[in-house]
């Protein structure tokens, strides 16, 4: 039985959606052919896509559903994105709203949220993740100092800022060598591991080499700016048995791919479907409660797409303890909560930033109120006094 | 002396451009820091970007110029794109209009137009490039048959369609093995080489392996969908001494990155600046005379950016011999003219498609008219009768 890839394209008012859908179905597959290729008629026809439906949307927009034969692509994201929107992206306004792939398509995550929980030995509650700040200008030793503070307060995961590449002034391997003893000490003292998602950079070969070197030296998680480095980079790392650690996917550049109303892709198609079918174990995205203007519907669709493949949703950007009630009410505890300033800029210091999250999660598990007026003095109250509640 | 990276951001009406420019200059670099980091004050300050100017544009838009220290990035595209627009792309409408890099930044092309001319032993006139059509459904033998037709008519370069990946039903290596003898025979008979830019696919490691295998077996050019596979993939191929052949960069997905009025990037920033600083030898883009609705100003800016680094401009999409006059008048002969249907669908067959281009180029070199009424019977006249003049 043949497998298919179904894609929904949205066209703005004024575009002949039926005609454009036909242009995609033919132009992005076998194209047209003449009598010279009659001996290949059957093969050629087998590669054509088919317009399944064209629906009216509000404001004169249309949604066209096109079904492509899965055999047109190699099962990976590079050829898939090129087929569904490569040349056509240049043909006029259109936005890819949804990509439905055959079950198990692509590269499945090796760990996902369940595997990350297992590594950390934390069931049930959301995991707590911090970001090294400031992003640039710290030495490896500075990183180790910061890590020591938050590690002993019970942090689960920390990551580099996505803009920190492997620089002569801040070598990635040196940062790991400085931080590894802190993680080891925490494990020795508490029996609990701490993941450090280290940012990858360089050209594609350097990225892969850096990942292997880091893992060979004991690094236990990686961070990749997937849209700047390419889905094929994520796929290669996720497929490599030598890079056997969770990969955190960062959404840098996602706005360039997804924020325009009538061009590019819907956020969930990229940060949800494509990320989860290219091997990401955890995917960061802007929480709509946070500091970036992100639509709630997009957030919901991303979370659904990630969870369908076991990938950890990581709400990010302006996350602080005052949001716990709202996030947990909307999405439940199967999350990694990623707070940058929401931990590092806690008025009592970064370790209190971690403690504030733990306090909030414990109150939530006990069914206790998270309202400011009900909070006792301490890290959580100080956080909510500073940042408010969502 | 410090080197800088200058970026122009365009903001739509209603956005406080001064404030957003400040947010980029700080938020996309060191961020803010508190007293705990006083011992790093100097290093942190050295990473901050600076707002150089904010200008008014028509329709209430603004253009802000921001200068980043070049030491914030590792000299490659992945970290550069992440720094200048990674998280900020999610912060609201803004478009990156121009990226000015230090001289020699990044990965320079190994061949460029001059090197490709040398390989083909063709000086002065524009090079002629064709595309295998139909894109999918042909056997390796079919490809060899098509190639034989156009090779003997004097074609310079041929490429795969960008949607053709390495498929079980159409293995890339098998295609090369079938086509290599045709290229050899042409070289033996005419002394002139023919480049075949083969499309790369797979995950990042597979792409690189495929490139090496192809080159090891004698393949003489490669095609990469850079925006689907990532600039770091292009950089890695261009830096690898084992992949010592010209790399043709395809603009698939460029509309998703660049077509929106107030989001993403200007076409020239991506298809011009970024491609030429990531190692492409030749870059395809939609010719504004052609079948895609491409703005002439963007085409001009792309050509200028490519030529500044010796990279070959490759006007594409609906190019046919009737356009020669206009293209050569606007851009001169330092081009690779890429025609798909404009060669393969010539009424007298693909070889006449190639002959029509040669005929047109010869007339142009002699200063003869390219008007239909002045053309003698033959391939060029048949082409202009079918497709008209630009």
List strands and helices in order, with pairings:
The structure is a homodimer of 390-residue chains.
Chain A: E1 4-11, H1 17-27, H2 41-47, E2 50-56, E3 62-69, H3 77-85, E4 95-100, H4 112-120, E5 127-131, H5 140-152, E6 157-159, H6 172-190, E7 195-199, H7 204-216, E8 221-225, H8 226-229, H9 231-239, E9 247-250, H10 254-258, H11 267-276, E10 282-286, H12 296-308, E11 312-316, H13 324-331, E12 336-339, H14 341-344, H15 350-366, H16 379-387
Helix pairs in contact in A: 5-6, 5-15, 11-12, 15-16
Pfam family, one (chains A, B): RuBisCO_large
Domain Ribulose bisphosphate carboxylase large subunit C-terminal (chains A, B): 113-283, 309-387
Protein name (chains A, B): 2,3-diketo-5-methylthiopentyl-1-phosphate enolase
Task: Explain what you see.
- The structure is a homodimer of 390-residue chains.
- With 390 residues, chain A is α/β, with parallel strands linked by helices.
- The first copy, chain A, has 2 domains: 4-100, RuBisCO large subunit, N-terminal domain (Alpha-Beta Plaits, 2-Layer Sandwich), CATH 3.30.70.150; 112-387, Ribulose bisphosphate carboxylase, large subunit, C-terminal domain (TIM Barrel, Alpha-Beta Barrel), CATH 3.20.20.
- Helices cover 41% and strands 17% of the residues of chain A.
- The first copy, chain A, is built from 16 helices and 12 strands.
- Chain A has helices spanning 17-27, 41-47, 77-85, 112-120, 140-152, 172-190, 204-216, 226-229, 231-239, 254-258, 267-276, 296-308, 324-331, 341-344, 350-366, 379-387, and strands spanning 4-11, 50-56, 62-69, 95-100, 127-131, 157-159, 195-199, 221-225, 247-250, 282-286, 312-316, 336-339.
- In chain A, strands 11-10-9-8-7-6-5-12 form an 8-stranded parallel beta sheet, with helices on both faces. The first copy, chain A, has a 4-stranded antiparallel beta sheet with strand order 2-3-1-4.
- In chain A, strand 6 (157-159), helix 6 (172-190) and strand 7 form a beta-alpha-beta unit.
- In chain A, helix 5 (140-152) runs parallel beside helix 6 and helix 5 runs parallel beside helix 15.
- The longest helix of chain A has 19 residues, at 172-190.
- Chain A is globular and about 80 Å long.
- The mean pLDDT of chain A is 96.
- At the A-B interface, helix 2, helix 3, helix 7, helix 9 and helix 10 of A face helix 2, helix 3, helix 7, helix 9 and helix 10 of B.
